[in-house]
User: Fold this.
Amino acid sequence: MPPLPEPGAPSAESVVRARFAARAREEVLALVDEALVAEHAANPFGRHSDALDRVLVQLRARAIAGKEVILQDAGGGYRLGRLGARRGDAPTPIDGPSYATVPEAEHAVFLLRLEELSR
Assistant:
C-alpha cells in the first residue's frame, strides 16, 4: 500500500494537472507570432489554421470567473468586460476603447487573453 501524503501536501493529481497546464501553456505560447495574430484579426470567427485553433482552445479553457467578455454599449458599440466570481454576477466593464463591430471586439478579447496567458 502506498504511503499516505503529508497533511497539506498537494495531491498527485493536482501536481500532474499543474504540470500539464504549464506544459500546454508553453507549447501554445510558442505558436504565437505576428502571422497568427494577423490571421485572427482578419477572421476571428470560422475556420482557422491548426496553430490558431490550438491557441484558441487554450484561451477558451480558462475558468469562467474573471474571463473577458464583450458587452454592448447603449450607443450600439461594443466594450470589453470581465465576468464576476459567481454565476449571476454582472460583468464588470474594463476601461478601454469602444469597438464598432463584434469581430473587432472579439479580436481585442483574443489579444487581452494572450497577454494574460503570457504572464
About this structure: The chain has four helices and three strands. Residues 12-31 form the longest helix (20 residues). The radius of gyration is 18 Å.
